[in-house]
Amino acid sequence: MGESFDLDPVEGIGVGAIGEPGQRRFYLRASSATQTVLLECEKYHVQGLLLRIQALLEAQGFGVEGGPTLPVRPPAEPGEMSWRVGELGLGFHEAKARFVIVAREIEAPEGTPNAGIARFWASPEQLRAFTGQAQGVLAGGRPPCPRCGLPIDPSGHPCPAANGLRPVF
Fold first, then answer.
1. Cross-strand partners of 153
2. Please, which residues bridge with residue 99 across strands?
3. Would the pLDDT of 74 be above 50?
4. What is the DSSP letter of 58?
5. Which domain holds residue 51?
6. Crossing angle for the helix pair 43-59 and 124-139, nearest 10 degrees?
7. Whether pLDDT at 156 is above 80
8. pTM of the complete model beyond 0.85
9. Candidate from 5-9, 52-56, 146-150 with smallest mean pLDDT
10. Domain tally, the chain
11. Residue 48: which H helix or E strand, with range?
12. How many CA atoms lie within 13 A of 158 on its CB side?
C-alpha cells in the first residue's frame, strides 16, 4: 500500500510551484504539529479544488470572503514529495465542523496493492486562507488569452478563436 496520511487538524496548508510559467510543477503542502506532507499535483487539480472549496464554503454558510492570508512558503524541492496526486476531493464533516481535503495517489507503486490516500482536515478559516494563497500562486503563471482564455506562451500562441492563424502576444 502507498503511504497514507491523516492530518487532523492541519496547522497550515498551501500550494507551491517550481519552475518557469508554462513548465511549473505544483505541490500541495499540509502540515500538522508532528509532520509535513508534500504531494505533487497538476495545476488543474488546484484549480478544481479552489472551485470546490468556494462552492462548499458557500453551501455550508461560511462564505468565501475574509480570513487571514497565509504566507506563500518557498516551494519545497521535488525530492521531498511523498507521491503524485491522481484525484483531489473535498468534503465537510458536520460533527467535526471541519472540511477534509482528500488526495488519492495517481497509482499504487509497483508491488503494492493500494494507492496512498491523504486526508487534510481544515477549518473554514484555513480554507479561505488557502484559497487566497493558492490563487496567488496560480496568478504567477502565464497570462490568459483575452480571446480564448488559454495561456499565452512568451512566444505567443495560435488562438483557437482566430482559427490559429494569428499569434497573440
1. 156
2. 92, 122
3. no
4. H
5. 5-143
6. 140
7. no
8. no
9. 146-150
10. 1
11. helix 43-59
12. 3
Residue 155 lies in a domain: no
150 in any annotated domain = no
The H-or-E segment that residue 127 falls in is helix 124-139
Look at the chain and count its residues.
169
Q: Give 23 or 100, the one with higher predicted confidence.
A: 100
55: helix, strand or coil: helix
Q: Cα 124–40–20 angle (5° rounding)?
A: 105
Residue with cell 493558492: 134
CB 107 within 8 A of CB 87: no
Instruction: Tell me whether residue 82 is in a domain.
Output: yes
Predicted confidence at residue 155, as pLDDT, reads: 75
Taking each continuous run of H as one helix and of E as one strand, the counts in the chain are 2, 9
Residue 32 in domain: yes
- Is the predicted pLDDT of residue 75 greater than 60, yes or no? no
Burial class (CB in 10 A: 0-12, 13-18, 19+), 149: exposed
